[in-house]
Every structure is written in structure tokens, then in C-alpha cells.
Amino acid sequence: MTTNNASDSQVLGDLLDQIPLDEWIDSVYTDGAYDTKYCRKVISDRQAYAVIPPRKNAKLWKDKK
Questions:
Q1: Which residues pair with 27 in a beta bridge?
Q2: Which candidate among 8, 42, 45, 47 keeps its CA 20 to 30 Å from the CA of 24?
Q3: Containing H/E element for 50?
Q4: Is 61 inside a domain boundary?
Q5: What does the alpha-carbon distance between residue 18 and residue 56 come to, in Å, rounded to a whole number?
Q6: 9-61: per-residue pLDDT in tens?
Q7: Which residues touch 65 (CB under 8 Å, ≥6 apart)?
Q8: What is the DSSP letter of 33?
Q9: Looking at residue 44, what is its pLDDT?
Q10: Does any domain span residue 1?
Q11: What pLDDT sits at residue 3?
Q12: What is the domain extent for residue 28?
């Protein structure tokens, strides 16, 4: 749960940081609010698989990062 000054996707890194680095994360399942490059990077940094449906207004990213 977040306040009005932070979106859900902005706090994903903080949530994952609560899990010790030596604890393996297989997959992170979220809703479309987390369909951001930041969230996908944070999940990837933990060597986990992101299961995130595209946002309702999703468009292809132009870069490959």
C-alpha cells in the first residue's frame, strides 16, 4: 500500500530489498501498474522472472534496454 506521493511501481525495489539477497526469488507476479522498465530491471537484478501483464495503454518500448 502506498500513499499519494508514491506509486506502487516506485516502491517495488524497497519491497524486494526486504528479502535477503541470499534468498532465491523465482518469479515476481504483479499487476499492470508495475509494467515499467524500472520494475523489470529491479526484478531482473534479483535474477527473478517478471510476470507482469501489459498496461491497458501499453506501447512497445523503442529502445532495447
A1: 49
A2: 8
A3: strand 49-51
A4: no
A5: 29
A6: 888 999 999 999 999 999 999 998 899 999 999 999 999 999 999 888 888 87
A7: 37
A8: G
A9: 96
A10: no
A11: 59
A12: 8-51
Closest CA to 33 of 13, 64, 58: 58
Q: What is the pTM of this model?
A: 0.79
Q: Which three cell numbers stand for residue 6?
A: 508514491
Provide φ and ψ at 29, rounded to 5°: -100, 125
Which residue(s) pair with 51 in the sheet?
29
Q: Cell 534496454 identifies what position? A: 65
Place of cell 506502487: 8
Amino acid letter for position 50: A
- The H or E element spanning position 14 is helix 12-17
On whether residue 64 sits in a domain, the answer given is no
Work out how many domains the chain is built from and give that number: 1
What's the DSSP call for residue 10?
A: G
Instruction: Give me the count of residues in the chain.
Output: 65
- Considering the domain boundaries, does residue 31 fall inside one? yes
Cell of 15: 519491497
